[in-house]
Amino acid sequence: MPLYQAIILAIIQGLTEFLPVSSTAHLTLFPWFLGWKDPGLTFDVALHAGTLVAVLVYFRRLWVDMLLAAAGQGKGSPAEIEEKRRLFWYLVIGTIPGGIAGYLLERRAEDEFRTPLVIAVAMIVVALLMWAGERFSRREGSLGQVTFLDSIVVGIAQAFAVIPGVSRSGITMTAGLFRGMTRETAARFSFLLSTPLIAGAALKKGLDIIRHEGLPAEMKLPFVVGIVVSGLVGYVVIAWLIRYLERRTFTVFIVYRLALGAVVLAWWALRA
Prior knowledge:
Number of helices: 11
Number of strands: 0
Helix content: over 70%
Shape: globular
Order of helices and strands: HHHHHHHHHHH
Largest sheet: none
Radius of gyration: 18 Å
Distance between the termini: 30 Å
């Protein structure tokens, strides 16, 4: 794999894993448009590992606090510890639907679902849902006010992210808006909820590589570059998006999704 392709794809992964525009769609469409070969499972592991590092590093203090609280430890008042303990278990519960969907539909998602038509339709449908969330939600709830039902609803929404073009962050942030979360809270909860599934995907695919062939010599440098670049870009994107959503709306992402969906749909129609 040429190193410049590894760098470009890692940048795309870092940008689109956390922006609500679908990393799978972009990593599928970009090689198609440019005629590049499929980077394969090995590089996919590197990209997942990089974005996992980004989200873990950004939320490291909160994850430590939640883990300590879940064990009955931690600093702060009893109410603060209980709030973090509750959030931890809500994240565990919210992860279950996505984990089941990934287990049952992984092969179909990687083969049958990765078509221009599916991606285009998913991009447009989620854009319309995001618009409705912006238009009709009350946007009042903070991270500390997340409820059991919130975790179930957002977790079920995350399960649909196995479909290319849906976007894990896009669908979960949209579900968060419909549950009355502020945009910033929806983003934070989305990123936290994605962490176990990104870790699970990276671990499973990493074990598949070890079990079958190991890391090929020619992929060692692209592998490391993929982790570093996607991790650095992903960290910057998380920090930027949370600040952005404190003051701005999802409008720019809605417009982008609609435009890209229309372009891909037209491209598919011309090639059909």
